[in-house]
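Write out the 3D structure for:
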Amino acid sequence: MKLKLLKLSLTCLTLLITGVGCEKNDKNYNPDSIIGKWEWLYSKGGIIGITYPEEGQTVEWEFTKDSTLIITENDVTTFETIFYISNDTLIFFRETDVKYRIEIEKDTLSLYFIVEGFDNFYKRID
């Protein structure tokens, strides 16, 4: 009887431990919600701390339905590439693969750099 109780306890403990390691995605992230134009508000991280646009500077990131990312500064295109989204991760190529974890809440886009670096924050403008 003690052996059966021990086996049952170990089985329950194993199920409990493996269940704790699973992360539930409650956000129901819709990858199409990133489509549109976003204006850069600020970045934070690295050794600089927080960085804001310079006075008179406008930086926009546009995500199109055909998976193109277009970055413009003061209405001049400075970078263009193809992007894709895997789960809650934005991935594009800029000399190397760049990966950000995406969070969109109301009209705010937060891009958290997967590796050590800057986290960027934008507001929807279109």
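The first strand starts at residue 36 and ends at 45.
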